[in-house]
Amino acid sequence: MRNEHLTPVQLKFFDKILNEIDIGIHAVNHEGKTMIYNRKMAEIEGMKFEDVLDKDLLDVFSFHKNEYSTLIKALTKGETIINAKQTYFNNRGQEITTINNTFPIVEEEDRIGAIEIARDVTKLEKLIRENMNKQSDTRYTFDSIIGSSNEIKDVIEASKRATRTNSSILIIGDTGTGKELFAQSIHNGSIRSAKPFISQNCAALPDSLIEGLLFGTKKGAFTGAIERPGLFEQAEGGTLLLDEINSLNPALQAKLLRSIQEKTVRRIGDTKDRKIDVRIIATINEDPIDAISEGRLRKDLYYRLSVVSLFIPPLRERKKDISDLIQFFIEKYNQLFGMMVKAVDEKVLNSFKQYEWPGNVRELEHVIEGAMNLIEYENTISYSHLPIHFRNKPQFKADNQNQPVTNENSSDIKPLNQYMEEIESNYLQKVLTYHHNNITKAAKSLGMSRQNLQYRLKKTRQSTNLERAKTED
Questions:
Q1: In 3D, which of 233, 173, 224 has the Cα closest to residue 198?
Q2: How confident is the model over 10-23, as a mean pLDDT?
Q3: Burial of 161 (0-12, 13-18, 19+ CB in 10 A)
């Protein structure tokens, strides 16, 4: 801050007040150079005081084409600007969005500067923009659901029947069971499949944003509000998935109930109802009865949503599907990582089937992905490859440590030279894959001659694909 007319004591008070208030203050002189710049403003703009004070405003900050600094506009045109939203960039190219009240400073009819009072809405604007622009990639169908257990087959069958109607659906299941997978499959199997499928996690945004996001806003409804359709309108003719519906506050649940019953929405700040044709699918990650009794879910909303109720079984209740899921995830990450893992060993599989899987299918996928990050040349996932936090679980330590070799796994024992050849073969394949089957580069990284590598490939009887590896002249 700069103000030579204040006494030291006054300046100390002035500094203290300006730097403690939770609002940004920025003032420029008649030349457009910054004279006052408080701590909150530096926070909002991600700047250091020395980068802004006594500097020309337009040398420090940049603006979109055809947009102008509200401070400079107040200074040059003498305009008072109230509740104006402004998006601009700091000296590192970081985007900032603020709501500003800006005033010219006049002395004896001369404009000697301008001052701006700013509130940061950068994060809120980013959240709204990301969510408004997000239309889910509906790649899942019923064929995407892995499992042959009766428990999962029953839910798939009930879900397929639900594709024939437009009734609301409540999908109930623990975290990680695949609720959105079922929601997308229902949408893709219905007559609405050609229309939008929009998904919104109700716990991802604060109440102050979620209402405008769902129902839309009318220009001028509140500071910085623009004319914007909500998710209901964006999903017109299609499906709106409301994930974790129990995280909405009761007032919003009441408004949601009205929209579903009346098939209309009213944007915030508007007086007009707009007709909508949207199928609602909601999910909840707890027992709805518990949510109702503890005040997290309105009873009337529950009855409206649960015209069709689907209960997705946790993985601990469909352990028959674990082998199929493991194989699916192995194949998925083989493709992503360029690997050739075949299976998990028998001991790990048995341990998996004994485990309760509190994170359900999602947890199983993460464990397989983590294990494949730790594999070197092997083609089977063993206990040593499991993520360390997983290995440290008492159950897995007990199941996999200090176990003698028995007849159950004696078939895994091979002659040492055969075992070493397989290790070498797998490792050479990994190196060749990394170098896109370029023999010369692979040999150099292995610290051997090109001829020696070719000899080893022939000796270890690599697959046809490896024998046809590219060579350089």
A1: 233
A2: 84
A3: exposed
Residues 6+ apart with CB under 8 A from 275: 263, 264
pTM of the model: 0.63
> Residue 467 — pLDDT band, cuts 50, 70, 90?
very low
H/E segment holding residue 417 = helix 416-434
> Are the C-beta atoms of 362 and 176 separated by less than 8 Å?
yes
Provide the pLDDT confidence category of residue 269 given band limits of 50, 70 and 90: confident
CA 380, CA 344: separation in Å to the nearest integer? 5
Tell me if 28 sits within 8 A of 57, measured CB to CB.
Answer: yes
The pLDDT value recorded for residue 223 is 53
Contact 239, 198 (CB under 8 A): yes
Q: Return the SS3 of 291.
A: helix
Residue 450 to residue 465: CA distance in whole angstroms: 18
d(CA 105, CA 115): 7
Asked if residue 354 lies in contact with residue 399, where contact means CB atoms within 8 angstroms, the answer is yes
Tens digit of each residue's pLDDT (9 = 90 or more) over 430-446: 787 777 778 888 888 88
Alpha-carbon gap, residue 257 to 235, rounded angstroms: 17
Q: What pLDDT does 403 receive? A: 47
The pLDDT tens digits for 292-315 are 999 999 999 999 999 999 999 999
Give the count of beta carbons closer than 10 Å to the beta carbon of residue 12: 11
- From the list 243, 241, 246, 242, the residue with the least C-alpha distance to 292 is 246
